[in-house]
Write a structure and sequence with these properties.
Chain A: It comes from Virgibacillus xinjiangensis. Chain A: This is RNA polymerase sigma factor. Chain A: Keywords: DNA-binding, Sigma factor, Transcription, Transcription regulation. The complex is a heterodimer of chains A (187) and B (82). Chain A is mainly α and 187 residues long. Chain A is built from 10 helices and no strands. With 82 residues, chain B is an all-alpha fold. In chain B, 70% of the residues lie in helices and 0% in strands. Chain B has 5 helices and no strands. Chains A and B meet through helix 2, helix 3, helix 7, helix 8 and helix 10 of A and helix 1, helix 3 and helix 4 of B.
Amino acid sequence: MEQFILQRIKQVKKGDQSAFEDVISFYQGRIFQHCFRMLGNRHEAEDLAQETFIRAYVNIDSFDTKRKFSTWLYRIATNLSIDRIRKRKPDYFLDAEIKGTEGLDMYSQLAAGGRTPVEEVESLELKSSIQQAISELPPKYKGIIVLRYLEELSLHEISDIMDIPLGTVKTRLYRGREAMRKRLRHV
Amino acid sequence: MKCHGEAVKLMHQYLDGDMTTEEETALRSHLEGCETCQEHFHELKKTITLIKSTESVEVPEDFTRGVMDRLPQEKKRVRYRR
């Protein structure tokens, strides 16, 4: 199967767009899953997983066929997810002003039509504590925890995907596990 | 072993499958006599089991089609050559 996919990738490199369909079908499960675990919701995950494949297609010339395609895809998906998480972070601060709306902060947004703080808390309580704990991890630890324990990749592969030294992978894995332990010890 | 910190470091090495036989023996003998570290080790292993128990999600239907529809019409490279 891997050999077949490699052939298809080579065809895509030659300009055969239709060959990319098989490539997507083959990797979509893993990439969608990864985005979902990074972002915590289906809608954003679908959007980013699609974006991952589009970026891969547009940049296919820079992919070296001697390397693993899945590693390359995971790298694109992880970087996009981390970017997305960082961009949405300001929304979490209730006091933050919303761009272009002088003096209008998140409190007034909540009062006007949005969910009330109480509803917010109730819906959070319904979420599984585990998914919650994962989603609260800082993005650089989250990526590693997800790749290691949900995607079950080796430390070497994670180092390739995240483009960081093996020692850094181990340090972040250490901190990520400790952070998760503190959140889940009483579950 | 002098302190818990050292033992915790070894626990993580153990979880990464990255330790010598000597280190493994040192960790084992420390755990035998230290309840705090036993608890910590147990929590770490439980944490990993919990993380792994997260349910998986199905890919949305028509995902592949959705991507194919959003691809640029032609590769730029091809267009430039004209």
